[in-house]
Amino acid sequence: MSLTSRIGPWFQQQWARLMETTTPTAVTGIGQIYTKADGYLYFQDGAGAEHVIWPTDTLTQYYGEGYEDNRRVSMTVREFSKWHGLWTIGEEGVLSGWTWKDGEENTITAFADAGDGEVTVTAAGHGLAAGDIVSINDTTNYDGVFVVESVSGNDFNITAAWAGDDAQGFVQLPGQLTCGAGSDGDYRVDFRGSINETGDDEFLLEVFLNTTAQANMMGSFRDGDNDNVVGISLSGLLEGVTEGDIISVMWKTQLSTGTALSVPSCNLNVIQIGK
User: Fold this and answer.
1) In the 3-class helix/strand/coil scheme, how is the chain assigned residue by residue?
2) Which CATH architecture describes the domain 63-103+174-274?
3) Contact 68, 52 (CB under 8 A)
């Protein structure tokens, strides 16, 4: 019996039945279409790469949003040309497959050698948790963007070389979106906000993925008379976002005259565009 005669009547129907399966073994030079128990239709190429064919009943599966609505809180420039987390974002938006954590700023009073390449930071009243992304500034030895490795009471640990107790500084937890289990994929990231600065400085804002600034999502502004509220927009694509990845916004001064930055209204959101 020919192949045409075998499959012809089957394809004359207005639907096709595919038994749910697991990812098949790749066959060089042959593509395979199949479905799994998760309800998705998949295509596997001859090299074994698996691609999702999006369901027709949904445009986007996963997304996350945090925002601020007319919160006029000034963020003091703690140190020129150093990253500061955008900690005044404090409202959870719509979420699917992502979680949101409000931002905060706290005063650092001590550093201690934790051993094994870690430093213990003391900041009373902090609301940090292991895995959070934070910025630290106004120190002698520990300025930068870090992952919180662990937390105990008023203390938290970061990975850094011990260089002595600076006994001062600030830690900012930027408002941040965290990718949940099963939400990995490619994402479009958008940040839009209204901004006002004090001190006639040039301010740089940039989207961060974990502790890494994303050069394709940055912008700067300068308001010479210090009175105007101006708009800023950062957007771009992130490939290969995985569970536990954190997206936030950081800012810093470019010159040495700025004293404060406020972002009264803004929106940070991610929308999945592929998997």
Assistant:
1) CCHHHHHHHHHCCCCCCCCECCCCCCECCECEEEECCCCCEEEECCCCCEEEECCCCCCCCCEEEEEECCCCCEEECCCCCCCEECCCCCEECCCECEEEECCEEEECCEEEEEECCEEEEECCCCCCCCCCEEEEECCCCCCEEEECCEEECCEEEEECCCCCCCCCCEEEECCEEEECCCCCEEEEEEEEEEEEEECCCEEEEEEEECCEEEEEEEEEEECCCCCCCEEEEEEEEEEEECCCCEEEEEEEECCCCCCEEEEEEEEEEEEEEEC
2) Sandwich (2.60)
3) no
Q: Which residues contact 35 (CB under 8 A, 6 or more apart)?
A: 18, 19, 20, 21, 41, 42
Q: What is the pTM of this model?
A: 0.78
Q: What's the CA gap between 120 and 55, in Å, rounded?
A: 48
pLDDT digits (tens, 9 = 90+) for 24-70: 999 999 999 999 988 888 999 999 998 888 665 445 579 999 999 87
CB 175 within 8 A of CB 87: yes
From 264, 252, 273, select the one nearest 84 (Cα to Cα). 252
